[in-house]
Amino acid sequence: MAKTSISALQEFIQKSHGSIPRYTDIPFDYGETPHFIIRCECMGLSADGAASNKKTAKQCAAGNMIKLLNEKYNYTIIHEELKFLAPSSPAVQKIITPTEVACASPGSVINHIGKLNELCAIRKMQQPVYLEKSSTGPSHRPLFTVECLIGNLSVSATALTKKQAKQEAAGAMRELLKSKGIIPNEFASTAIESGEESPAVDDLVLNIESLKISEDPKVATATARARELYPTLNKRLPRSTDTPKNMLMANYSEAFRAYFDPNAIEKFHEYYKCLEITEKLSRASLVFILERISDILKITWERYPMKTKNINSYLVLYHIKSKPSFTEAGIGDNSEAADIDALHRLIGAIYILLV
Asked: What is the fold, at CATH topology level, of the domain defined by 112-180?
């Protein structure tokens, strides 16, 4: 017997180490016959389900999400398909989407499209591309779906108008960029809102002794701590001979991508999209993820524990053997904490370089 769409989707996400699907009630006004709409959000996608009761609407939303996943990522998620009719009764007077609720107050309107364009310009990322999908739902009340793409990242949103769907898709992309670690939450909420620009990668100084930090007290504190921990640390790792000394940081990502087979990069992104990388992951879990990434990209890595002046602090380096190669460092109050810090940085760096 086939599993219900909710159970099948939940089981697939757990096996893929992805984030748990989120179901949201979409409120609306109705006449004599009540209908319910449930929205399912998962892996950057959004799908709605409509029925005469909430339980069936939730099953329909999960079923539509499975259909999207199967079509977009070539998955094969088997589930029990429901036979139902979408609400098309004239009794349904008005559907109120979250976008309409937010726009009810002029002071609370957020131009997600403008914010996303500004973010991409500041971070020197590709500008978003919006694709309009075919409309669904009854003819008198169609729903429009718009897909937002930035490089290999993609999210979709559905609303009553194309304009609303585009705004929601842009907002969903901003949230996806935060969750992937491509932009920190504090950058999205402060720097972008105030229009402050982030320094270009070319302007970053790699020598810790020459850093001049005045904007962020947290970063200044962390730098001061690093200087205190290993001021007498003069040992260096063997200098890599596969990276030209005069290579600009702006060209590093392009050179890194060119080193890998395009099919391997595509498989990496498919695997990465299924992950739910949070601060709660253990060192063993992160090492497992790194090993899987190494298998996909056919690279190797090495771990270098370092000694510090302060015996109560730990420093560890993870070196990726690629062309060009790179190293990420982690620091913590114990060995495991330092490893977790370094592994988070390393996995995130690989993703950013391959976007």
From this structure: Double Stranded RNA Binding Domain (3.30.160)
pTM of the shown model: 0.36
The whole-angstrom separation of Cα 253 and Cα 348 is: 13
Assigned token pair, 172: 């969903």
Residue 172 to residue 165: CA distance in whole angstroms: 10
* pLDDT digit string, tens, across residues 224-283: 655 555 444 444 444 555 555 555 655 777 788 888 888 999 899 888 888 877 777 888
| Closest among 286, 293, 294 to 316, alpha carbons compared | 286
C-alpha to C-alpha distance for 277 and 80, rounded to whole angstroms: 30
Rg (CA), the chain: 24
Q: Centre a 10 Å sphere on the Cβ of residue 32 and count the other Cβ atoms it contains.
A: 7
CATH second-level architecture of 5-73? Answer: 2-Layer Sandwich (3.30)
Report the alpha-carbon distance of residue 258 to residue 89 in Å, rounded: 55
Sign of CA dihedral 195, 200, 203, 206: positive
Supply φ then ψ for residue 177, to 5 degrees.
-65, -35
3-state secondary structure of 309: coil
Location of each CATH 3.30.160.20 domain in the chain: 5-73, 112-180, 217-354
Which residue stretches of the chain are H helix? 5-15, 54-73, 98-103, 112-122, 162-179, 185-186, 192-194, 217-229, 249-258, 262-273, 283-297, 335-354
Asked: is 217-354 a CATH 3.30.160.20 domain? The reply is: yes
| Tens digits of residue pLDDT in 131-170 | 988 787 777 667 888 999 988 888 988 888 888 889 888 8
Task: Kindly list the distances between the CA atom of residue 74 and the CA atoms of 70, 71, 145, 355, in Å, as whole numbers in the listed order.
Answer: 5, 5, 20, 21
